[in-house]
Write a structure and sequence with these properties.
Strand order of the largest sheet: 1-2-3
Low-confidence stretches: none
Helix content: 40-55%
Number of strands: 8
Mean pLDDT: 88
Number of helices: 16
Strand content: 5-15%
Distance between the termini: 30 Å
């Protein structure tokens, strides 16, 4: 197979228009890097024929911070503080996948209490993340009220995180060997109170937005991503499941205590914007089911099985771990030379990066307004792409 490499300048060279009064002229328009729909600093170049999109060229890199290179100069414990600054809406899950990979490589065995609390925190954040996405999608499509509702409810979950962890957004709570802090005595009571509030809330979201005729017109049969294309692009999370692929690491490769919880993997049938909307709405309900089953069964035991100041030295070799974050599979590759407590090389397999490039397949042929719905339905967090 031959691969043709073309520069951005070559891609932006406008084609020669036919010399005819009926001919149309294609032209390029920049959407970003500063644009409300970008959800961060992302530049999207659209090749347009009138209002119709002919080609989409994503140009990431505007918030690149060199996180992977920084990891080479930080200990395995300190690396955790960088993970929550990638996909900041899945901070705890990002912490967990790095901690779990290090634990597996170092031969550290945690206990049931640690794994149960980790699972509870991850699912609470999944609810929080999907709720925020719901509000942002509504705002992207003109329903500003949804944005206010989602931020109101997101902060209620954030209060539980703040009481336990001390932070609401960039949280480095899950550490190699356990947790930074134990849960408070009233944690179980407050989570139960939260569930009683959130459970009917999803129905309220459906009443407010899901059944709206305008939303239905903007999402149904728009931006179809087939199962074959989703797999080819390496899409994961709600994006690939909306295309009908039941790929969820919580079921296929259970970690934490997911094997002790009964929940369904939500899949779509068509892979359009509506299916991506539907999957996330139902996943919030499934996360509530998981938390309900675990909250009364938190085992006793220490919340940390190693000393905080203990140096973690991994044996020489290559180690890989992966988990299901709110946006898909985050993979962590560590190469250790066996010297010291820092990795020789570290690489993150970002779910947002692969999900982003799906727009090059599904957006051509649709209008500019449709592209807003398509990109919003992918639920991208740009710092996770640029690392």
């Amino acid at each position: 197979m031959s691969v043709t490499v073309r520069t951005l300048d070559e891609l932006l060279t406008p084609p020669t228009a036919a010399d005819s009064p009926l001919s149309t002229q294609e032209y390029f328009v920049n959407m970003g890097p500063q644009h409300p729909i970008a959800h961060g600093s992302l530049r999207i170049i659209l090749l347009l024929d009138g209002e119709t999109i002919r080609k989409v060229i994503p140009v990431p890199g505007y918030v690149h911070r060199g996180i992977e290179k920084m990891c080479e100069h930080m200990s395995y414990r300190k690396i955790i503080t960088l993970t929550d600054r990638m996909d900041y809406l899945s901070a705890l899950m990002n912490n967990w996948v790095v901690a779990r990979t290090v634990e597996k490589a170092a031969g550290i065995e945690t206990n049931a209490r640690i794994e149960t609390i980790r699972t509870l925190m991850a699912e609470l954040q999944r609810i929080q993340s999907h709720a925020l996405w719901w509000g942002v999608l509504g705002m992207d499509l003109g329903a500003f009220t949804a944005f206010l509702y989602s931020f109101r409810d997101r902060e209620i979950i954030g209060e539980i995180f703040e009481e336990t962890i001390g932070a609401r957004l960039t949280m480095n709570y899950i550490q190699p060997g356990g947790l930074m802090y134990d849960i408070l005595p009233d944690f179980v009571q407050k989570v139960k109170k939260l569930l009683a509030y959130v459970r009917p809330l999803i129905n309220e979201y459906d009443t407010l937005l899901s059944g709206n005729a305008i939303l239905q017109e903007r999402l149904r049969n728009i931006g179809i991503l087939t199962a074959k294309d989703a797999v080819a692009f390496g899409c994961t999370g709600p994006v690939v499941r909306a295309s009908g692929v039941p790929y969820d690491l919580r079921k296929l490769e259970p970690y934490g205590v997911y094997d002790k919880a009964d929940f369904d993997v939500v899949v779509g049938t068509k892979g359009d914007c509506w299916d991506r909307y539907y999957v996330r709405m139902e996943e919030m309900r499934q996360s509530i089911r998981i938390v309900e089953q675990l909250i009364d069964n938190i085992p006793e035991g220490p919340y940390m099985v190693t000393k905080y100041n203990a140096r973690l030295k991994l044996p020489k070799g290559r180690f890989y771990g992966q988990m299901e974050t709110a946006r898909g599979v985050l993979g962590v590759f560590i190469y250790s030379d066996g010297n010291g407590d820092t990795p020789y090389r570290m690489h993150f397999r970002s779910p947002n990066f692969n999900n982003l490039w799906a727009v090059t397949q599904i957006a051509p042929g649709w209008r500019i307004a449709d592209y807003i719905a398509i990109q919003s339905s992918l639920d991208l967090v740009i710092p996770d792409i640029d690392r």
